[in-house]
Amino acid sequence: MNKNIGSLDRLVRIVLGLGLLSLTLFLDGSMRWVGLIGVVPLLTATVRICPLYSLVGLNTDRTPRQ
């Protein structure tokens, strides 16, 4: 698979993922587990591949291909 996440998109995903993961520390009860959704944007930012972007044909990565 080709990388399809650019630098700004990656930064936004990291901030969003860390913010969601922090909810596990601040929320009580069963709502605490909602914060685990933050793993998804962190994972996609790490590998720079978004399956949803592939399905709809989006690509925010502007690095030249070799």
Low confidence ranges: none
Q: Can you give the mean pLDDT?
A: 93
Order of helices and strands: HHH
Provide the gyration radius in Å.
14 Å
> How would you sum up the global shape?
elongated
DSSP E strands, number: 0
The first-to-last residue Cα distance is 14 Å
Task: Kindly estimate the percentage of residues that lie in beta strands according to DSSP.
Answer: under 5%
Structural class: mainly alpha
What's the helix count?
A: 3
The largest β sheet comes out as:
none
Integer count of domains: 1
Oligomer: single chain
Determine the fraction of residues in helical runs and give it as a percent range: 40-55%
Structure description:
By secondary structure, this protein is mainly alpha-helical. The chain has one domain. Helices cover 53% and strands 0% of the residues. The protein has 3 helices and no strands. α1 runs antiparallel to α2. The protein is elongated. The two termini are 14 Å apart. The model has no long low-confidence stretch (mean pLDDT 93).
List the helices and strands and how they pair.
Blueprint: H1 7-26, H2 39-47, H3 51-56
In short:
The chain is mainly α. Helices cover 53% and strands 0% of the residues.
